Amino acid sequence: MSKEAVLLELRHVGKYFGGLRAVDDINIKVESGDLHCLLGPNGAGKSTIFKMIMGIYKPTNGSVFFNQRNVTHLKSWDRVKLGISIKMQTPGVFGELTVYENMKIAVQHFTRHAEVKSEVSRLLELLMIRDLKDELVDNLSHGQQQWLEIGMALACKPKLLLLDEPAAGMGPEETDRTAELIRQLNQQGITILFIDHDMAFVKKLARNTTVLHLGRKFAEGTVEEIETNQQVVDIYLGKS
Ligand SMILES: Nc1ncnc2c1ncn2[C@@H]1O[C@H](COP(=O)(O)OP(=O)(O)OP(=O)(O)O)[C@@H](O)[C@H]1O
């Protein structure tokens, strides 16, 4: 991988909470244009890594590079301005407002006033929820709310989109639509790093995978390589 091809790099990153090494000496490179999955069982350190990429947690050790720039000490908002965006697992939408109003709140930070309406429409179309623009968010299905949140994360026109378990709690149909949406965003040039522990979903989407276990990098490679790695299979069955 050439230096220019790397969009995100974690170098010897660690995060300790008291005596707990939630993330320990992690090195990860995410290539520009990749659809990359952070895979691992509960408590492996995946969300903590996302929070360090986003600037929500400061690493105990190591550095985070974005576009070859050391962003370790930048605030979250400055990272957003550089092109990093996140959709967290916890809900970030306003249930008592409409779909349109939610999107407008996100879009108006990044778009000139005269273009807000058309940008909201463009995103709602992309998210397959344009017909629901006047609906209160509380009335949407779980999947539709998740797509709206992805849309709000897109408002800053990110180069790198972090998705924490984007299909969690969805049925098969919504999961398939979510996979399709993520694939589409990636084809439009957005590099995507997503967290998941559902191997079937990961197989549908990811090109490259980093497997974490107990805060350490356990394995990395293509989905095919990971799937046939006996040690990875074992940690999923609780043998390691
Ligand atoms: N703010 C915190 N204070 C103390 N411990 C924390 C904190 N955040 C996370 N941890 C611990 O760090 C470890 C890694 O947590 P993390 O949430 O990153 O794992 P994860 O791989 O995202 O798990 P899950 O799939 O369950 O979301 C866990 O043992 C967790 O309890």
From TrEMBL:
GO MF annotation list: ATP binding; ATP hydrolysis activity
PROSITE patterns: ABC_TRANSPORTER_2
InterPro entries: AAA+_ATPase, ABC_AA/LPS_Transport, ABC_transporter-like_ATP-bd, P-loop_NTPase
CDD domains xrefs: ABC_Mj1267_LivG_branched (cd03219)
Keywords of this entry: ATP-binding, Nucleotide-binding, Transport
GO cellular component annotations of the record: plasma membrane
One Pfam family hit: ABC_tran
Domain ABC transporter: 8-239
The name this protein goes by in its record: ABC transporter ATP-binding protein
